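General statements about sequence and structure are easier to judge against a single worked case. Part of our work consisted of pairing the sequence of a single chain with a tokenised description of its backbone. The amino acid sequence and the backbone structure tokens for this protein are reproduced below.

***
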Amino acid sequence: MLVEGSGVINWFYTHESVWPALIIIFSSGVLAFCLNFSIFYVIHSTTAVTFNVAGNLKVAVAVLVSWLIFHNPISYMNAVGCAITLVGCTFYGYVRHMLSQQPPPPGTPRTPRTPRNRIELLPLVNDKLDGKV
């Protein structure tokens, strides 16, 4: 309103109902909030590295699906990059799985991301806030 005040006011006068536009704007804000909330939840539940690996996997899968469904041409370098990404993500998942199967060395402190039971997997707030509230 401050920058484009006259254009917004003219738009209000030229349209019969502003409710559809307001619903779209409000829905866009709610969806953006949900996206940010889900990103923070994923990073909280895993790690930032896992989140970035998942993002790279998403891009590679999007390129491959676009090639399969829409027959978009991809270059040799794109195909090699997708293959390297898929192999790297698979290897990362394998290594993470193997590390999760090993018991921690004696004397290793539990990190905030190490749940003590299944209930701790559910909330966003963990024991980092104990004694601060």
About this structure: Residues 19-45 form the longest helix (27 residues).
